[in-house]
Amino acid sequence: MKETLEALLQEALGKIEAAEDGRALQEVRVSYLGKKGPITEVLRGMGKLSAEERPKVGQMANEVRDEIKTKLDEKEQALEDIRVAKQLEEQKLDVTMPGRPIEKGTKHPLQAVVEEVEDIFIGLGFSVAEGPEVETDYYNFEALNLPKDHPARDMQDSFYFTEELLLRTQTSPVQARTMEAHNGVGPVKVICPGRVFRRDNDDATHSHQFMQIEGLYIDHNVRMSDLRGVLDSFVKRFFGENREIRLRPSFFPFTEPSVEVDVTCALCGGKGCRVCKQSGWIEVLGAGMVHPKVLEMSGFDSNEYSGFAFGMGVERLAMLKYGIDDIRHFYTNDKRFLAQFKRV
Ligand code: PHE
Questions:
Q1: From the CA of 311, how far away is ligand 1's center (Å)?
Q2: I need a labelling partner for 110 at 20 to 30 A (CA). Which of 47, 60, 98, 279 fits?
Q3: Model's pTM, two decimal places?
Q4: Closest CA to 307 of 168, 174, 143, 190
Q5: Parent domain of 29
């Protein structure tokens, strides 16, 4: 019996040693330690042994079984270690490899222009105000000296929700709102950027929705020359030092006198070309001295206070500054267009 068990042990250890994977090990485990295995058989046959031999053989059989078990477990662990080591080796991460770049968006050119204009006017002592896009008939028209039957309303036909509520056609209603908030006490010095809406036939230079920046300065003794000075320094900062402005008489119901402001054409430097229609000038904004009636309606004493106002189209500023030939580029969100405004 002893010899048989000793031989079994050596045989099993040899097979464990030779096993190359988990499956081979499992086979060894089943064949030596299983219910039909040789060790179980030895234990079963113990009945035939003498009472003296029985415990010795029993003990030895148990020792052999434990030894095989231990060796099996050790080998199993060793195989697992090898497998993990191999996997780690194969799946090694190269952390020095450059990552995939994250594509960054860009500031929309209209937003960039608004911020640049804001910066320039903040530098001139203005602050930034905003008003609602859904506006009342009162602020959009009446408070700006455009009573209900005024013919100048025709130029700014809009989208009405009710008789009294519409999408604002201009940022000028923010003038009235800001003045009201000041309770007749100056100075008032604001610019107001925002969206405006008009019933319009969309083409390369017109859109039913666009942006404006309104300016308003009310104080004692504000004069036309102040308007000219402020606009001149704005244009020089925004378009370049070599640009000049020109004031032409015009009409707005809420300013008197009213002017259109032109800038020297960037393309020809004022000599005249196709873009400026040979005039050497390009129109950029409307402006004027705030009409006394408008001051009074919003609570300012027109004998004590005077002021100027202006309104410019943001798309137009951007198109002139960057040489953009179609207003629709701003709204179609084509990345090839937008990416050109990336700041490096
Ligand atoms: N609101 C006018 C427009 O949209 C522009 C403007 C503003 C004119 C302020 C004079 C003063 O055409």
A1: 4
A2: 279
A3: 0.71
A4: 190
A5: 2-90
169 DSSP 8-state letter: S
Report the atom number in ligand 1 closest to the C-alpha of 169: 4
To test ligand 1's pocket by mutation, which of 252, 254, 261 has the most ligand atoms within 8 angstroms of CB? 252
Q: Are residues 175 and 61 in the same domain?
A: no
- Does ligand 1 lie within 6 Å of residue 172's CB atom? yes
Q: Give me the number of domains the chain comprises.
A: 2
Our answer on whether the CB atom of 309 is closer than 6 Å to any ligand 1 atom is: yes
Give the gyration radius of the chain's Cα atoms. Answer: 45
Nearest CA to ligand 1 atom 7: 311
Parallel, antiparallel or unpaired: strands 127-128 and 188-197: parallel
Q: What are phi and psi of 146, to 5 degrees?
A: -120, 80
81 and 196 fall within a common domain: no
Dihedral sign for Cα 46, 49, 54, 57, please. Answer: negative
Residue 183 backbone zone (phi > 0: left; psi -120 to 50: alpha; other: beta) = left
For residue 22, give the H/E element and its range: helix 22-33
124 in the same domain as 57: no
Q: Which atom of ligand 1 is nearest to the CA of 313?
A: 4
Q: What is the CATH number of the domain that holds 322?
A: 3.30.930.10
**Tens-level pLDDT at each residue, the chain (344 residues):** 788 888 888 888 898 998 888 888 888 888 888 888 888 888 888 888 888 888 888 888 888 889 999 998 999 998 899 999 999 888 888 888 888 988 888 889 999 999 999 999 999 999 999 999 999 999 999 999 999 988 888 878 888 999 999 999 999 999 999 999 999 998 999 999 999 999 877 888 889 999 999 999 999 999 999 999 999 999 999 999 999 999 999 999 999 999 999 999 887 888 988 878 899 998 999 999 999 999 999 999 999 999 999 999 999 999 989 988 889 999 998 999 999 988 75
Atom 5, ligand 1: residue with shortest CA distance: 311
State whether the beta carbon of 286 lies less than 6 angstroms from ligand 1: yes
199 and 83 in one domain? no
Asked whether residue 67 falls in the same domain as residue 216, the answer is no
